[in-house]
Structures are given as structure tokens and as C-alpha cells.
Amino acid sequence: MTLPYLEPLTLKEPAGLTIPEPPRRGEEGGEPCFPCAPDARDHAIWADDLWSLHNPGQTGLAGSVWLTSRAHFDSFADMPEEYAATLGAVAGKVERAVSSLGDVGRVHVYRWGEGGAHFHLWFVPRPLGRLDMAGPFLPVWEDAQPLVAKDEIEAVGQKIAAAMDA
Fold first, then answer.
1. CA 27 – CA 89 distance, rounded (Å)
2. What are phi and psi of 53, to 5 degrees?
3. Could you give the CA distance from residue 69 to residue 120 in angstroms, rounded to a whole number?
4. Where is this region: Disordered (predicted)?
């Protein structure tokens, strides 16, 4: 596991505290919640009654997708039981669909919750053989890669959607 930077890296001082923290998308005073928008399902590459799967706006790793709940809740802590009962099966299905693209070493799953207050998980493929990208720094590597063209993101998303329906 490595970072996509040459040494020597220097540690910087942490930023000062920001309290109260600013509202996230979907919180009172924040920007609107994208997954709650009336046309959000139109932007999904796959959906069922509880979950929808989306391509990212931009990425350095083709095959990255995000899964979100159809209902508005923020985290595992306030996830309704019907969602908790299906999340494992749906996440496994997404992982298999991303893995089916080929040349995928592993599929990483992330939940940060920093940008929006609507539950969502990121599925990010680590390219086969790219052991330097293994581990928790894959998102840093993703950001350091050249951006994938929008038409390629959409084409790969359609392959993932087809695998979800298979």
C-alpha cells in the first residue's frame, strides 16, 4: 500500500476546529438532497424498490459506482429495518457486477457521509495487478488518475447495470 506521491512527504498541522459544522446536502440549511430529487431515479443505472445505483459525475477509475437508498436516512444507525435486511444482498450484487468487468483485483466499499446526509456507499474497483493501489489509499489514487471520459463512464455503467439484472 502506497501513496501516489514521491517522498519526502511532510506532515502538516491539522486545521482548526469548525464548530458548528456546516450543514451537508440534505440537512436543514444545506443544499438540496440529490437522491431525494423527483428525477433522481432517471439518473440511476439500476434500481429496485429500495435502492438505486449511480455512475459518478467524474472518476479516475472506470467502474466506480455509488449505491443509495430510495428513502432519506443518514447512516447505518438510523437505517430502517427493511433496508438493513436487504443491504448485504444488494451490496454483494453490486460487488459481483463491478468485478464482472474484468481486470478488477478487488472492489473496495466506502461510506464517508461527509458530503450528503443521504445514505450511500461507494464501490471502487482496484485494477488487477495494481498492488500499489491496495488498501485505504485507493480513493487517493483514484483522484490522482486522469479522468475517465463521460461516455466511457456511461458505457461501463451500462455493463454494470446489465450484470445487476442478470
1. 29
2. -115, 135
3. 7
4. 1-31
What are the residue boundaries of the structural domains of the chain, listed by start?
40-165
**40-165 maps to which CATH number?**
3.30.428.10
Q: How many CA atoms lie within 13 A of 106 on its CB side?
A: 11
Q: What is the end-to-end Cα distance of the chain in Å, rounded?
A: 34
- Distance between CA atoms of 86 and 76, rounded to whole angstroms? 13
Residue 66 grid coordinates: 455509488
User: Residue 7: is its pLDDT beyond 90?
Assistant: no
Contacts of 121 (CB under 8 A, 6+ apart): 66, 67, 68, 91, 109, 110, 111
Residue/partner pairs of 75-81 with CB below 8 Å, 24 or more apart: 75/113, 75/119, 76/111, 76/119, 79/119
C-alpha cell at 103: 481486470
Q: In this structure, which amino acid lies at residue 29?
A: G
pTM here? 0.94
153 Cβ contact partners less than 8 Å away, ≥ 6 residues apart: 55, 56, 58, 59, 62
pLDDT bin (cut points 50, 70, 90) of residue 1 is low
Give the CA-trace dihedral at 139, 110, 47, 94, to 10 degrees. Answer: 90
